Amino acid sequence: VRPGGGPPAGGPGSGSGSGSGSGSFPSLFPPGLHGIYGECRRLYPDQPNPLQVTAILKYWLGGPDPLDYVSMYRNLGNPALNVPEHWHYVSFGLSDLYGDNRVHEFTGTDGPSGFGFELTFRLKRETGESAPPTWPAELMQGLARYVFQSENTFCSGDHVSWHSPLDNSESRIQHMLLTEDPQMQPVQTPFGVVTFLQIVGVCTEELHAAQQWNGQGILELLRTVPVAGGPWLITDMRRGETIFEIDPHLQQERVDKGIETDGSNLSGVSAKCAWDDLSRPPEDDEDSRSICIGTQPRRLSGKETEQIRETLRRGLEINSKPVLPPINAQRQNGLNLDRAPSRKDSLESESSAAIIPHELIRTRQLESVHLKFNQESGALIPLCLRGRLLHGRHFTYKSITGDTAITFVSTGVEGAFATEEHPYAAHGPWLQILLTEEFVERMLEDLEDLNSPEEFKLPKEYSWPEKKLKVSILPDAVFDNPLH
Questions:
Q1: Which residues are in the Suppressor of fused-like domain (predicted)?
Q2: 302 CB-near residues (< 8 Å, 6+ apart)
Q3: Least reliable range by pLDDT among 87-96, 325-334, 426-435, 443-452
């Protein structure tokens, strides 16, 4: 299906030659789609009929793909700016295309349309390539599925841990950052505003740097390295070197200094994690152990959900909806979405606090706790301690397999229910751990080998008996098969 150049040509969904006259145009060409397509026509006036990947069975009819269309344009780049020729992909469906509640609830023209954004992607064109590859459309459908299933939106600076080459090749480009598209402007449609977020493919080392520091900082570095993205952040799946291998000074002079000065901008991750309350034996009431491998704890309350939601700035909310499933058999780990923090370091949402007084929520104070992480999640503990808590901030692990959440807080974080007097506290399956600066420094020394995963053998246990705290790093199978 190809959108036409104007009313006489019909448009997506109109079928081939079925009632494509100008009189029937308004009903056949959805207004929301028309608004986005107008911005595409502004950029590509010479490509009125771009190639498209189309959902055969639309999502609102029960199909698996949330995006109705992904248009693919040929962009000539900008030689003066050292921007190479590339393929430009634009999604249609995360915003409200129809305005009739078939997909998105219509909430008016002033706010966001649907989820408020569409995805774009710029892929370097290979020599002799006459047509755009279609795998980016599948990638965009995968991200869209995550958004629809979790109702979490993306923001500029977010990073997505994908754990597999984006095109299923042997490429080092295995993760993504998100940023504003450099050419596409926000569009006002009859159903609200649509912005355009561009996917940027990155290497594992660049993702880790974004986690340790922040996504926007790494995006700025990528813009300065032409072969790694350049000013328009074009993804080259054949790129064999990270920006730190291309320019070793970037790590020390920019990233390390940024981490030391700013701390980490990452306030939480989806993770394989669990925790046990060691304060009481398991045969007490079932609520005495918040999360125990093989038990079923009570669900989080709406208040607790809202607090974690605020902590992670519209991300990683607690719900029963699944994290994005693997796109194919090769992508076993699925997707982890890493969130930027809220504007203030507070665990309290003003709106929810007005509804349910904080003191009415039952807080359980624990004497001793055992934290459990898989290796990937455990490797982020030094980031949590050095980049967050030593800067007076908080960090949350949200389980991808259940309702469990573990939030580390420093003494300066507002709204925490863990205190220096009672450093371990829980609301149902949400555990908070307050760590003093002195104890953080000691933990960083004891956990130093987490920074060398190649020398790591599982399971691994760390213990601080006088603090009644134990941390275990366990194989993935423990979390994937909790009954074994």
A1: 63-239
A2: 352, 356
A3: 325-334
